[in-house]
Amino acid sequence: MFKKIIFIIFLPVISLVFWVYNLFIIDDNLSFLFTDYIFVNLSGVLAISFMSVNFLLASRLDFVEKIFGGYDKVYKWHLYVARIVGVMIILHPLLIILYSSNSLQSFLRSAIYYFIPNLANNNLALFYGIISFWGVNLLVFLTLFAKLPYHIWKNTHRLFIVFFVTASLHSFLKTGNEMLIYKIWLIALISIGILSFVYREIIYHFLKSKVYKIKDLKYLNNVVEITLDDDSKKFEFHPGQFVFLSVINNKNISSELHPFTISSAPGENLRFSVKYLGDWTQTLSQLKQDQEIKIWGPHGRFFLDDQNNYLTEKNKTIICIGGGIGITPFLSIARYLVNSSKTVGKLYVLYSTKNKQEAVYESELNSLENDQIKVFNHYSEEMGYIDEKFLKENFGENLEIYRFMLCGPTPMIKSLIKILKANNVKQDQIYYEEFSFK
Questions:
Q1: I want to staple 163 with a disulfide (CB 3.0 to 4.6 A). Which of 44, 75, 135, 351 is the partner?
Q2: Average pLDDT of 169-183?
């Protein structure tokens, strides 16, 4: 947690240091600290700083993912920082209006001036600030509250760079030449945000991508299983990791990137098990053998500890609970352990589905059972949701002696974490991965 907090606050703290230092040079009596507008300026400094942090979080740089313990964790922090940005950008003009108004009439006049863009005012800094205010807050609202289709959500998300640039121009133009030291840092800060965006949208696509052909397709109930050609055996990854996948040269399927966990083990043909959940996944029925697939990655640290060791190397029993298609990382892990023949801690895999018909990987999991791996099947329609009683009946009263790996729908994850913590399982014994990055 400490590393994560340092990462989030590092750029904002540096911004504040340069800002205060430059103000101190201008006014060594520090009288600026006792003015109303100190909070106006402070909110502006923090807004730009946290926006830059958020672009860095979204960059897909390997060191960022390592600090946060997986891309799904990075995305959660990305949402937290987005809320901070939204609050700061709302506070910035609102405080100006409040401080400059002494009556209802002046308040309304100021609100019109600071909230409605008007180039006739001949104030470019203000114009850029207003555009940023409305643009950022609209996008934050859509991100947090609107349930947009993935491809629309993704494209609107890219517009953040536009409003980051306008906010940066606003901040730069409002900063006087006497604030030279802070202005130089502001250029560096803005560059970090823009370069992070450029890396994600351009450089990442060239450096991290590989193209393979589909060798085999299977349709298992509501899951399509995609196995790639023999060249994909050379793709290096850790069990439990995921990639971003794109279907290319197929007019019936959009080429947009989607994240999918690898359900095969390292050294095997790459395999992906995709459940029909949304508009894009429904179009995968149009896939054909020899269709080209482009992948980016790998990503994720689900099966890795902070020292890059596999969790089973600690010689402790791990209970893996996969809900529905959330079983895919555990398929990869179990297959790896069988193929590698490592004598390490035991692996208990609990495969939970609505009913037996949806348990499309039950047979495969059962075939992987050995002295190290034991499989448990759970059908929620017959047995109800997984609860404390079910866990203790199958794994014993002392749940705190295990490590737990959880993957599945968010409600299931939250429910299980609550049960485990109530039974003295510590936070650092619980590893979980959620599906959605939206």
A1: 135
A2: 84
